[in-house]
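COURSE: Structural Biology Practicum
ASSIGNMENT: Worksheet 4, Part C
STUDENT ID: 0417
INSTRUCTIONS: Below are two proteins. For each, the amino acid sequence is given first, followed by its structure token string. Answer the questions at the end about the second protein only.

PROTEIN I
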Amino acid sequence: MDKNDSFLVFAFIFGVFGLAIWGLLNFTDNTVGKNSPLKVSRSYEVTTLQYFIRVENLSIYYFAFVGLYCLTKIPDTFSPSVYLYDWRNPAALILICVVMIGLPIYYLYLDLNYWEHTKNIRITYLPDEKIIEIEFPEKTYVLKEGDIKNIHVISSGGKLRFGYSVYSLSNGDSFILTDRVPGTWAIQEFFKKIPIQYTEKRFPLIK
């Protein structure tokens, strides 16, 4: 390895480390720091591009691509020669395809379902007035202390987590916010002591 290669490796490692530090500082600044919605007025809304190019989505797209590629190679495992054919080869490849295509199907089905309940929703925090405005396409809720009666959180658990929360209000209304809606974490910080119920479902489809 010459000096140029060593410099490139060092620059790459330093760059990744610096990016991670910047991300951590930015996250802290936006949650408990000077830009926290508990301290300054902030609005949250996810765009279509932001929603579908999250890191976990890119990983799922990669899995789907590899699974489809492996699917095209299954015919190559069937050799015309009895001496070369081994049933374990196509069986193993088929199993890999089932896993690598089945997982994206499961994920994308829920992801599209959640998008229908995530798009065009804006959450605005007004800490000076102690008010949260939640704008849905059909209605806007202006919430203050005591307006949220309870929260029911339904989640799949695991690493590929899907979840949504049903917010029941003191006036009898209710609405759903998915865990894909940015800024929902601050609701429980904004209004303390809200009763919360947790339910785990393997397939938390929103109906």
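PROTEIN II
(use this one for the questions)
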Amino acid sequence: MKKNILLAALLAAFMATNLCVAQNTQRGTKLEKEECEDLALQVATNPRASGSGVSNSESIAFNTAKLQARNELAAQIAVEVTSILQHRMEQYTQTAGACTQFNVNRDDYRGAVTGNDNSARTISGILERDSMVIVQKVSQILTNTKPICNNTYKQPDDSFKVYVCMEMDLQTQRQAYTTLKEEGIIEKDLTGDGNNDIDFNEKEFLIELAKAREDYNAKKAQE
């Protein structure tokens, strides 16, 4: 009797093991994030981004990874800043009763709206151009930023694959504020009357940027 009970127990365990293996096979192989990639995805006070590079030269792979992370971080800042600007510009049109076309007091915008091209005067047109400027300027600011994470892997073909994570610290965010203000991104004379209809001081900009980052991270988490 005891022998039959033992055999029944072993059989049940064997079937459970096979069932578990079958379920795992159906689910596929669990993929784990690389350390630097995972660090970039973690919720943090400062904006982060990761990048990777592959080359037969370790230094080239490292520089490629840094460039990718730097561009990704600049693009992230562009999304956050333009979302702030869009909110402010929409508020302006509601409170001032203004139409959705502006006479933006910037040489590149004035040059862009000559002829029949009025797209640069719209909110979307302005933000599209602002986004390109932000990516360019922030990428330049991040040139000397050192990675907070850096891992190198030797590939089977003897090439190197490098992962990095870069972070934009508070000092660099302040530098970005100064640069974007000089470029007329975060202060705007929308009507051309000589008064800035949109203007941020440094503290206000950093607070708004942190809020926009929370929204950005929440959307990324849902993807």
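ANSWER KEY EXCERPT:
Q1: The chain has one domain: 42-222.
Q2: Residues 19-26, 105-118 have pLDDT under 50 and may be disordered.
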